[in-house]
Amino acid sequence: MKQKIDQLLDESQRFQASTMDELEQFRVKMLGKKGELNDLFEAFKTVANEEKREIGQKLNILKTAIQDKIDEIKNALEITEDNSENTDLTRPVNDFVLGSRHPITLVRKEILEVFSRMGYVVSEGPEIEDDWHNFTALNFPPEHPARDMQDTFFVEKNGENDIALRTHTSSVQVRVMETQKPPIRAVFPGRVYRNEAISARAHCFFHQVEGLYIDKNVSFADLRETLLNFAKELFGEETKIRLRPSYFPFTEPSAEMDISCNLCGGKGCTFCKHSGWVEILGCGMIDPNVLKNCGIDSAVYSGFAFGLGIERITNLKFTVKDLRLFSENDLRFLEQFKSSGF
Ligand code: DAH
C-alpha cells in the first residue's frame, strides 16, 4: 500500500494538463467516487493498527498534494482562457505617459548649442566652492558686500578660505584658467545659490551659463560680435543688442547687455517696462588681476567673459512671469513644454 501511495504521489506531482477537460479526467481518476484515493481509504480500514498512523499520514499528504495540483493547474488555465476570451486584438495599445523636458533644460541646451557652433567647449565646476574661486581670485575686495551673509550661503566660515555654495558660475572660470593654457574658449552651465527671499522675481537658487574666451589680441569688438551672434541665434535675426557700462570686480571694462524686447519687437510693452529693451547678461574684458591670479600672463593674453541667467532667457522665450514655477514641479506647468522638447 505504501508503494501505491508513493507511486500516486509521484504521478500527481508530474501531472500536467493543457485543457480543463484533461484536468477534470485527472480529478475523477484521483478523487472521484471510484477513484484511486477512495480505493486507498477503503483499503486503509484493513491496515494493521501499528501501521495506521504512518499510512494515514501518507494518505493525507497524497490527498493534499493532488488537491493542490488541481488548484494550481486550474488557476493557470483560467488566466490564459480569460485572456484569450477577452483579448481584442483590434484595440489600440495602452498609451504610456511620456514626461517632458524641464524648460530650464530646454533653454540651457539651446544656449550651449549656439556656443558650441561658435567653437566653445562645455565644462562644469563644483557647486560647493571655496572663497578663492568664488570671490578672491575674481578680484572681489575683502569688504565686498556680496560676501556678506545676506547673499551667500556659507557652508563653513573660518575667516581664511570660507566654503560656500557658489553665488555665480564665474568660479568655474577660475578653475579652468588655473588648469588650462590659452587659447581657451569655453562655456560653463550650472546652478548657483544666493540667500534671497523667494518671490516671483527672485529665488535662492537659479541657473547660469558663464562664458570665457582667452587668446592673444582678444578685443571688446570680439566680445560684442560674439554676443550679437548669440542673441540673433537665440531670439531671431532681427534682434538688436545694446551694451551699457557697468561694474563687475572681475572685468574691466564691464557691461550689461540688453536685447530688443522679443515680445513687442522693441516697441515697448509691460514686459520690457515700455523701454523696448530687456537685460540678459553681464560681460566684460577680463581684468588683468584675474588673469594674474590664475597664472596667465596678461601682457601676452587678453580675454572676455560673460554670465547669463538661464531663467531670465527662459522667461523671455516662454513668457514665464513667476520664477517659482521653475521649481514647484507643478505638472500643469511642466506639461506645457511637451512639444518644445528634443
Ligand atoms: N557673475 C555675474 C553675476 O552672477 C555675471 C557676470 C558678469 C559674469 C560679468 C561675467 C561677467 O563673466 O564678465 O551676476
In helices, the fraction of residues equals 25-40%
Low-confidence stretches: none
Main sheet attributes: strand count, strand direction, barrel closure: 7 strands, mixed
Count of beta strands: 10
Rounded average pLDDT: 92
Q: How would the global form be characterised? A: elongated
Strand content: 15-25%
How many angstroms does the end-to-end distance come to?
74 Å
The number of helical elements comes to: 11
Cα radius of gyration in angstroms: 38 Å
Structural class: alpha+beta
What binds here, in terms of ligands, is:
3,4-dihydroxyphenylalanine
Series of secondary-structure elements, N-terminal to C-terminal: HHHHHEEHEEHEEHEEEHEHH
Order of neighbouring strands in the sheet with most strands: 1-5-6-10-9-8-7
Task: Describe the protein's architecture and organization.
The chain has eleven helices and ten strands. The protein is an alpha+beta fold and about 350 residues long. Helix 1 packs parallel to helix 4, helix 3 runs antiparallel to helix 4 (about 50-85) and helix 5 packs across helix 10. The longest helix has about 40 residues, at about 50-85. The mean pLDDT is about 90. Bound molecules: 3,4-dihydroxyphenylalanine (DAH). 3,4-dihydroxyphenylalanine binds near residues 210, 282, 284 and 306.
